Amino acid sequence: MGSDGNDLYSQGLIPLRSSAQPQLMSLPGLPTLWHTDLLNYMLDAVPAGIRRVVLNCASVQSQSSRILVNTTYEIEAGYIDALEKEDPYKTNLKILAIGPLLPPELMDENQVQLSARSKHESSEVRDCIEWLNMQSPASVLYVFFGSKYIPSHNEIIEFAHGLEASTHAFIWVLKPPPSDASQDATSWLSRVLPQGFQSRIHTRGFILPYWAPQILILSNPSVGGFWTHCGWNSILESIYCGVPLIAYPQFAEQRHNCRMIVDQLKIAREIVMDEMKGFPDRKAVERAVRSVMEAEEAQEIRRKVEEVRDTMRKAVKDNGSSYRNLEAIVKEIFHYFDQKLSITA
């Protein structure tokens, strides 16, 4: 398989049939994957035009000798080494991990607090942070599925019942779909949540419509878990803050990310899907929350995420792997332009 994915395309393996029986696939540098773990753009259910755009973007690698990646070498060494070894276009390919690329204030706890305070634009956010500051260490689950994925009404009902049954405190960022975006948030939440849910959980649950200061929440010592859609930025932020994850991937590269954090790094639990419903039921939600938040079950996953956090933080410090890689590419760029200037002088 070439790095750009076009070999799979020429062999007729792409587009993959989304309705087919699960198939195991072996790709260089990766653990064995089910075909549904691949980029969903490779499935036949996605319009061909979108698939062509993705393949064309990937084919740019055939002209590249350096690729910068927002990751840390130590946590993805197998993948990076495999890509460099394969080098199908003989460009002396180097994959330079320069991450995690995170907001600078995350490196300084005081700056996180100042930055977040300046961005508090709603009373809900201010109240949420005040409530969070009063909770016990590692006692709160943060729930957010990113800016693109909107749970269905049926999902919201099951998630709410599962969160309630878990008995753990939580912050849930719950965004209305575009069709309901013009509605008042209070009336929308009252309509989509189970009857009486908000009054029953009002002392241990906080629901934020639209937006939350994610970095401020994850860096708060009261937060002990993050139920996420497995977007890469969210994963990096959670690891950097030492917060274990519950994985609920949806699309794009999120299934890849899920496999890495669950199977390889072992810093997450994957929530179990109800095959008939197409999403987790309330019992699966309750089990997943308990597995990450309760001391006995969560002890090992917390130890693992702290190990990965320390590795990641070391990488961006002086002489760390990401620091050296970024320094190396800057030197290459300056050397390239020095040569160009010498030629034209």
Describe this structure in words.
- This protein is α/β, with parallel strands linked by helices.
- The chain has 3 domains: 92 residues, no CATH class; 207 residues, 3-Layer(aba) Sandwich (Rossmann fold); 31 residues.
- 46% of the residues lie in helices and 12% in strands.
- It contains 14 helices and 10 strands.
- The strands form 3 sheets. It has a 6-stranded parallel beta sheet with strand order 7-6-5-8-9-10, with helices on both faces. The chain has a two-stranded antiparallel sheet with strand order 1-2.
- Helix 6 crosses helix 12 and helix 12 crosses helix 13.
- It is globular, with a radius of gyration of 22 Å.
- The N terminus is likely disordered.
